[in-house]
Amino acid sequence: MSGEEAPEAPAQQQQTEQEKQPDEPPAAASDAPQEPASSPAEEEVFSCRALVLTGYGGYDKVKLQVKTRSKPQLQAGEVLVRVKACGLNFAELLARQGLYELLPSPPVTMGMEGSGVIEAVGEDVKNRKVGDRVIVLSRSGLWQDVVLVPADQTFVMPESMSFEEGAALPVNYLTAYMMLFEMANIRPGKSVLIHMAAGGVGVAATQLCQTVPDVTVFGTASAAKHETIVQGGVTHPIDYRTKDYVEEVRKISPMGVDVVLDPLGGSDTQKGYGLLKPMGTLIVFGAANCVTGQKKNLLAMAKTWYNQLSISTQKLMQANKAICGFHLGYISDDQLIVRTMATLLELYNQGKIKPRIDSSYHFEEVGDAMKRMHERLNIGKVILLPEPKKEEEKPKSSPEAEDKADKTEARVSEEKKEEGNTQEVKKKKKKEKQLYSITLPRNNVL
User: Fold this and answer.
1) pLDDT one-digit tens code per residue, 84-142
2) How many domains does the chain have?
3) What is the CATH number of the domain that holds 309?
4) Is residue 216 in a domain?
5) Helix (H) or strand (E) holding 37
6) Helix (H, G, I), strand (E, B), or coil: what is residue 69?
7) Which residue windows are coiled coil (predicted)?
8) CB neighbours of 296 closer than 8 A, spacing ≥ 6?
9) Does the residue 338 lie in any domain?
């Protein structure tokens, strides 16, 4: 998306915009003649809340904007979805810093996944209907409370799935599934090293490994998260902050592992390759080491790419190892996406996978949500909620406290009344005394 956006507003504020937005249907020109049968008051309008990336930089570059516009007209094959929950991914942290090449230049609405309810369907839509609870997948534009998308980008949710779970499933589980089963061909008895095992992809990959018998999972995470990831299926948790994970893996498995899932890049890619057993597979699917602060860090980027693994095909032949790269955004095979989503939803129905929700934040709190993920405090998925945040109600007093307050107020009122009566009496006596003192001399004279 490109062009002029609404005036910027902090995420904690809401701003109504009357101007036409680039991603909206064209509005009628202001000087266009009005038809008798349709007046502005009669036009159906609605407001749309959206999180817009207004420029590259820190958390404050993502603004909450409220737009008022005419009701969009559905084209053939499209559906209108009222979004209930959205997923936050590491890719959005990269995008905010200008490091995600698939996102159009700012100003642009971010968001690759969400869930909600279909409110309208266009022509030729046969397999979706109004009221369907659906998951929505897109390259961008889903951090809004209303979206217009092709019907084939939606997937009907299982009845038992919550909106938060629906928003947490697509990106993380598609990524993990395709890496493990399409690329690494994971089989019984294999071993896998999962970096950032407490993150969204890490949790998804761990659960999917449990669907294959006798798979050993090494997972890196801070010590505070070990108990949780072990309960989720990690066989050997490793605290990457205090220990060398290469040495820890070698202690348990001297030959190394069969699969390494690498979202880090840089020197960690080289370490991962060194940990592979013969016939092993290294899959690089991110460069998290580039993200060190709120804004783009050129030194961290240069260091990451300088330490990036570079190897010849001859060396690969001699080592009998494989190196793969994965990026969900560049998957152009729509049928592959559809088939994989169907498999994942079936695994959910069978109880074999279940997205773990770390926390949920309203659109107004997007900065806090990004900070939580940036600082790697989350265990599982961070969710954004389009619904406006309700103001916190003042705590109500108990009946006893209210009764006590009433009695106190009554007593104070009575005291003030008595005080007032006392003052009146004093004034009256003083007046009488003054009169007496004035008339007495006169009486003496008489």
Assistant:
1) 999 999 999 999 999 888 999 999 999 999 999 999 999 899 999 999 999 999 999 99
2) 1
3) 3.40.50.720
4) yes
5) none
6) strand
7) none
8) 56, 97, 98, 99
9) no
